[in-house]
Amino acid sequence: MEKLRFGLVLIVLCLSTSLVKGGDPILTFEWKVTYGTISPLGVPQQVILINDKFPGPIINGTSNNNIVVNVFNQLDEPFLFTWNGIQQRKNSWQEGTLGTNCPIPPGSNFTYHFQVKDQIGSFFYYPTTALHRAAGGYGGISVHSRALIPIPFDINPADEFFVLVSDWYTKSHTQLRKFLDSGRSMGRPDGIIINGKGGKGDGKDEPMFSMTPGKTYRYRFCNAGMKDSINVRIQGHTMKLVEMEGSHVVQNMYDSLDIHLGQCVSVLVTADKDPKDYLLVASTRFTKEPHTATSIIRYTNGNGPASPELPKAPIGWAWSLNQFRSFRWNLTASAARPNPQGSYHYGQINITRTIKLVNTAGTVDGKLRYAINGVSHVNPTTPMKLAEYYGVEDKIFKYDLMKDEYEPPAGKAEEKITLAPNVVKVTYRNFVEIIFENHEKSVQSFHLAGYSFFAVAIEPGKWTPEKRKNYNLLDAVSRNTIQVYPNSWAAIMTTLDNAGLWNLRSNSVERQYLGQQLYFSALSPKRDLKDEYNMPDNDVLCGIIKDMPLPKPYSV
Predict the structure, then answer these.
(1) Vertex 301, ends 295 and 303: CA angle to 5°?
(2) Omega cis (within 30) before 55
């Protein structure tokens, strides 16, 4: 009966683009999630395919489109997708994490239905269950401006290409999961892939992209990887940075760009060189033995192979920090709405709360765990969002185990790590400052779901209130991920104006799986549909609420 209901939804919506009366267009997709055997790094292995493809289909939409994705889980394990960077306004029901959703059981389906409300930009989706991300199952999301909104480009791109770069393991996700469950690390990745392929770099690869001489093209890059920052560059060409995670930026030229875990950017590249082949190069950063992958860009009517000499990657993280400081919000450009981005003066808003987050690694009962402020998150069998909705949160978790201020033990003292659901209560619509402090030797990357934030500073050392004088309070880029360099801190600011339960997580798959994440609970004071949508009728139920009567729904 349940499958019949989903089928009827699809019949009503049709498998095409259509218009809701008086509303915004609907884009409808039907995805079959299966295993398949392919060889991203030349070794046959089991990979998660979507409609027999890896990477999966690109969701190519426009601001305010309604996206409907009917997912058929044909794996042998429960499964979920998250839509990294899509804000899910009033709708954390569609977030697709284990804190908000029960996973889709094997052999069944679930229909995601969300709107890319007031957003443009480059994003991606990926699985959040059982380390499935190490088996693939990811794809790109392009959200274009509406026709009435001017795009701040001198030249309209002739075409655009989505480039998903990722580090990759030749071990299966089940093997890697066993490592983590047994208390050990996943170890180093085995290589890099570009759109699912390793690229031999011997000139025999088929071209991945094609450009016509004299034309300009848009490349959307996302680091969909698991452990490493990745630098991207194109032989003989410069890249004009135009967009970053949903914001138009000041259009500087770059020879190469560092893209940290979970981050997305888009650039314009003009085919203004001799007509032949050129290599797009991706290589890991901040690793002792860098991995490199290439793909061929072919000029139409070109004559000649790409040069075997690859452009060199930058060295060290000071270079990367300086590049971060060069990124600026384009104050005069419009994004999803007609008004200029700079009309929002975030630097003039009073901070109501400061939360300092310190990432650490340690052991519990001899097993590796990662924590934020001494708490290592554990997903309960009943998702916290459902527990809140049904009014049984006190039976599932405790709020605010984690404190706003934290200082890890000095020297070699062992940190006491608490294993528990990590849920922090925040006040709806407050303007907050979040500090990320990284005392470790590796670069970290964090994502905040449900919001965009202003990345106002990254600096070496420890944060103190006096550091606020160094904040960029005018044109910091509004985005959803932030990197934190070794023994450094980063500061972000945001308004918590999206009611729901929202995940703040490490973008490292290993760290996220072993507890380096938390949830912000931003509840509206009243159960009002103006602030938050009701639980969808088709929501999968699990845990203690599975057979409970439905709570009273929100109303206007």
Answers:
(1) 70
(2) yes
In this structure, are residues 232 and 259 in contact, taking their beta carbons and an 8 Å threshold?
Answer: yes
* CA distance linking residue 178 with residue 65, whole number of Å: 40
* 389 phi and psi angles, rounded to 5 deg: -65, -40
- Report how far residue 494's alpha carbon sits from residue 451's, in angstroms, rounded to the nearest whole number: 8
| Cβ count near 87 (within 10 Å) | 25
Q: What is the pLDDT of residue 120?
A: 97
Provide block-wise average pLDDT over 10 residues at a time, the chain (556 residues): 36 36 83 98 97 98 97 98 98 98 98 97 98 98 94 94 98 98 97 93 87 98 98 98 98 98 98 97 96 97 94 96 98 91 95 98 97 98 98 98 93 88 98 98 98 98 98 98 98 98 98 98 92 97 97 88
Using DSSP's 3-state secondary structure scheme, residue 105 falls into coil
- DSSP per residue over 343-379, as a string? GS-GGGSPP-EEEEEEEEEEEETTEEEEEETTEEE--
Q: Please give the helix or strand (H or E) that residue 491 lies within, else none.
A: strand 488-495
| Tokens standing for residue 274 | 């001799």
Listed in sequence order, the residues at least 6 apart from 474 whose beta carbon sits closer than 8 Å to its beta carbon are: 331, 347
Report the chain's terminal Cα–Cα distance, integer Å: 31
Interatomic CA distance for residues 196 and 282, integer angstroms: 13
For position 17, what pLDDT does the model report? 37
Residue 155 exposed, middle or buried by CB count within 10 Å (0-12, 13-18, 19+): exposed
DSSP letters for 311-345:
PPPP-SHHHHHHHHHH--B-TTSB-SSSSBGGGS-
**Strand, coil or helix: what is 467?**
helix
Q: State the amino acid at position 287 in one-letter form.
A: T
Distance between CA atoms of residues 56 and 205, nearest Å: 21
227: left (phi over 0), alpha (psi -120 to 50) or beta: alpha
Provide, for the chain, the percentages of residues in helix, strand and coil under a 3-state DSSP scheme, each rounded to the nearest 5: 10, 40, 50
Q: β-strands 216-223, 264-270: how paired?
A: antiparallel
For residue 238, count other CB atoms closer than 10 A to its CB.
16
Instruction: Give the CA diameter of the chain.
Output: 69
Residue listed under structure tokens 């030249």 = 155
Beta-carbon count within 10 A of 452 CB = 22
- Which two three-digit tokens encode residue 276? 């032949």
The phi and psi torsions of 121 (rounded to 5 degrees) equal 130, -165
| Radius of gyration of the chain from its Cα atoms, rounded to whole angstroms | 23
Q: Going by C-beta distance under 8 Å and a sequence separation of 6 or more, which residues neighbour residue 222?
A: 122, 123, 124, 140, 162, 163, 164, 165, 259, 263, 264
pLDDT the model gives residue 34:
98
Q: Match 């999968």 to its residue by tokens.
A: 540
Q: Residue 275 has which token pair?
A: 């007509």
Phi, psi of 471, rounded to the nearest 5 degrees: -65, 145
Q: What is the per-residue pLDDT for 7?
A: 38
